[in-house]
């Protein structure tokens, strides 16, 4: 009887140990499922971060290209500004020359009027010869 009781006691302990191990296996399987699900979430996050990183590199390249275009436009702007300044200088010199020519023209017109008046005065001083009949 003692042997039977000892065997029943041992069977009870083994059954308790088996139940405990089953519960541990169930807990570990739940933990594995949780970890797998967390792993999937992290993989999705990693893919999203890779996409964001690719977009960042693309935007940085666009920014670099825009900077180059901006520098080129600034150089063109400076060249245009220099060209405009040269043209303004040419226009200034042309206007100055035009004013000098206009002044010379007015002086020449005044001199022409003076000479015309002088010629008219000289013509009036000349005695007109009126021939006499017997001449």
Question: What fraction of residues sit in β-strands?
Answer: under 5%
Return residue spans where pLDDT drops below 50 for at least 5 consecutive residues.
none
Radius of gyration: 57 Å
Level of helix content?
over 70%
Write up this protein.
There is one protein chain. Helices cover 92% and strands 0% of the residues. By secondary structure, the protein is mostly helical. It has a domain at 8-97. It is rod-shaped and about 200 Å long.
Task: Give the structure's gist in a few sentences.
By secondary structure, this protein is an all-alpha fold. It has 1 helix and no strands.
Please name the defining characteristics of this protein.
single chain, 135 residues, mainly alpha
Topology:
Blueprint: H1 2-125
């Amino acid at each position: 009887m003692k042997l039977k009781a000892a065997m029943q006691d041992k069977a009870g302990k083994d059954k308790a140990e088996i139940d405990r191990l089953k519960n541990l296996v169930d807990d570990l399987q739940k933990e594995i499922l949780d970890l797998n699900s967390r792993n999937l979430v992290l993989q999705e996050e990693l893919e999203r971060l890779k996409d964001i990183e690719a977009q960042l590199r693309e935007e940085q390249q666009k920014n670099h290209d825009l900077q180059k275009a901006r520098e080129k436009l600034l150089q063109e702007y400076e060249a245009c500004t220099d060209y405009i300044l040269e043209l303004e200088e040419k226009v200034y010199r042309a206007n100055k020359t035009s004013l000098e020519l206009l002044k010379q023209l007015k002086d020449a017109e005044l001199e022409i009027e003076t000479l015309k008046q002088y010629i008219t005065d000289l013509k009036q001083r000349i005695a007109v010869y009126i021939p006499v009949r017997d001449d």
